Description:
CATH architecture of the largest domain: 3-Layer(aba) Sandwich
Number of strands: 13
CATH superfamily of the largest domain: Type I PLP-dependent aspartate aminotransferase-like (Major domain)
Radius of gyration: 21 Å
CATH class of the largest domain: Alpha Beta
Structural class: alpha/beta
Shape: globular
Order of helices and strands: HEHEHEHEEHEHEEHEHHHEHEEEH
Strand order of the largest sheet: 2-9-8-7-6-3-4-5
Low-confidence stretches: none
Amino acid sequence: MFSRRVPEELSANRIASARASSPPRFDLTVSNPTACDIAYPPSLLAPLADPAGLEYRPHPRGLSAAREAVAREYLRYAATADPERVLLTASTSEAYAFLFKLLANPGEAVLVPTPSYPLFEHLARVEGVQAVPYSLDAEAGWRLDPHALAHAPESVRAVVVVHPNNPTGSFVHPEDAAALSALAIERGWALIADEVFLDYPLDGGPGAGYSFAANQAVLTFTLGGLSKSVGLPQLKLAWVVASGPQNLTTAALERLEFVADTFLSVATPVQLALPSLLRDGATVREEILTRCRANLAALRRAAAGVPSVSVPSVGGGWTAMLRVPAVVGEEALVLELLHEDRVAVHPGYFFDFPADGTLVLSLLPEPDTFAEGVRRLLRRIAAHLAAA
Length: 388
């Protein structure tokens, strides 16, 4: 009766079931900044009450003032974005759905990075598209290998890069970005650059100050949104910036506009408020960045006291990796932490890390909560090391 685009098996896994039966007190997986004691200006949402929102005059690409505000944001990265090449969506997930509809026929493929956030396979599947993983090289600081991508199947129509990647925090190296653009031109691929965490440099590194919105060599779609840039996931507004050769971007945007016009999913009040939200939300962004940097420093100080535990470099984003000795399996350790210590962390396999021994932690939690959760986590690991 049901489409194969939706998985048959949808029951909760062991970790989700354990969390439901024993909610963590120290949640080091939280990705919602509004649940982390971040200070938001009391007047931040006041522009949503603009009376102009009582009138409905939709535009498939989004209201012009909102698109102009998005274009201005890219000046911070020395990228000149044309408001006419900006299209608003209700989320970055919707942006992916629109782009997969645009670029790939059912059964064709898109290249997606691994390890990365485990959403691409689902987004592709519900669009009838195949997600083909390509590996990031851990030994090279999670760089992509354009030469390996050259062996991708003929069915590939686009390649996704996450800049910086979640959870490795790695930026796309400028050399790799140039090589990838050349390969995309040769193979007739489009680039999809997910930059939702670009505003949060931590350790930084090559590529940290670059936006793919500046890429004019190949048809490129750069994604961002309020969920991360201003810490407001509940307002449901994201965007796509198209760049590249004029003939291709014009043709792509005409077709994207057709897709968007069938949904018209972005609410008028948030579009009207967007210029103010992006301007006034800079203080929220700075607070989130300060929080993440402080928690990362605290994690490194704490981990330094436990043998065989390390915190790799985190170029940017809201997450950190913790390398732990494989004296116990990731899932067993995560379940033990939930049941015995009331601490929640992600196992590395959740993100398709190639080997056991990686835990993934959010850097968003309130500092005292984060510190105590990390203390309990490291105590548990130390106990396993002592017993080994």
